[in-house]
Amino acid sequence: MAKRKSFDEKSKGMHKSHKLIIDTVFGREDNTQRVFGYEKSEDTTKREVGDRWVDGDGKEWEQKDGFKVSVSQMDDVRQFLQKLSTCHSENCETKQYSRADKKLIVKTGYCIVCLAKLEAKLKADGTYPFYEDYKITLNKLGFIRDFKQKCEDSLNSLKKDFQMVTEDGRIENWTWEVDIDQVKKDLQSDIDNSYESIELLLERRKVLEEKLLELNHPELIKK
Ligand SMILES: [Zn+2]
Predict the structure, then answer these.
(1) What pLDDT sits at residue 44?
(2) What are 164's strand-pairing partners?
(3) Could you give the CA distance from residue 55 to residue 62 in angstroms, rounded to a whole number?
(4) What is the 214 CA–ligand 1 centroid distance (Å)?
(5) What's the confidence (pLDDT) of residue 205?
(6) Which stretches of the chain drop beneath a pLDDT of 70?
(7) pLDDT digits (tens, 9 = 90+) for 97-112
(8) Looking at residue 46, what is its pLDDT?
(9) Where are the domains of the chain?
């Protein structure tokens, strides 16, 4: 009778990522790290949270609680957040944003006073209806794209039988008591309809952007 193979012997022919998962799950010492590119000699200096240093490649890092981030990466994030939370108006006079200001800036780019001024101006020069239509069109577009994505994800992962791992680690087989073909058909039809709506909305967005340009308001067009 053949000798039972040890895990390590058996795992020799196993796909690397598969083995890594098993090693991680069972807490095995992973001796294949080299293969995965983690070989790079680790900087062993002890860092305090908030410490900054420059590595061998000239990249600057900051120690966070439990992980490190590159400083330029953080600056980008900071800059992005800063932009998100600052009124876009060139002549904004609001010194301190209220909670309502902050909410509105995230949503529209403007604080309460500046948005009111902007909208009054747009009403006076006749742009407002197009501006409002444009905003609604963009919202709808975002919503339908999300919806279509969710339908596609569901369709791709839809199976009649699936396995569940219970809390105590047992594997149970489940069968879904629905007409799976009908569900698939419904999802596919939702996806097809979404495509159609997206096309129409893109067309509408284009027309409205042209109109906003014609009315001399390129700043209202969302990139
Ligand atoms: Zn403002």
Answers:
(1) 67
(2) 172
(3) 11
(4) 25
(5) 96
(6) 1-44, 73-74, 162, 176
(7) 999 999 999 888 899 9
(8) 77
(9) 7-71, 73-124, 126-223
For residue 95, how far is its CA from the centre of ligand 1 (angstroms)? 9
* DSSP H helices in 125-175: 128-157
Q: What is the pLDDT, as a whole number, of residue 144? A: 93
Residue-wise pLDDT tens digits, 123-161: 999 999 999 999 999 999 999 999 999 899 888 887 777
Q: Rounded to an integer, what is the distance from CA 48 to the centroid of its chain?
A: 30
The 10 Å CB-count burial string (b at 16+, else e) for 200-212 is ebeebbeebbebb
φ, ψ dihedrals at 221, nearest 5°: -80, 125
Contact 137, 205 (CB under 8 A): yes
Between CA 91 and CA 70 the distance in angstroms is 34
- For residues 149-175, one letter each, b for 16 or more C-beta atoms within 10 angstroms of the residue's C-beta and e for the rest, the string is eebeeeeeeeeeeeeeeeeeeeeeeee
* Residue 123 CA to ligand 1 centre (angstroms): 18
Interval between CA 13 and ligand 1 midpoint (Å): 64
Instruction: Fill in the DSSP letter of residue 96.
Output: S
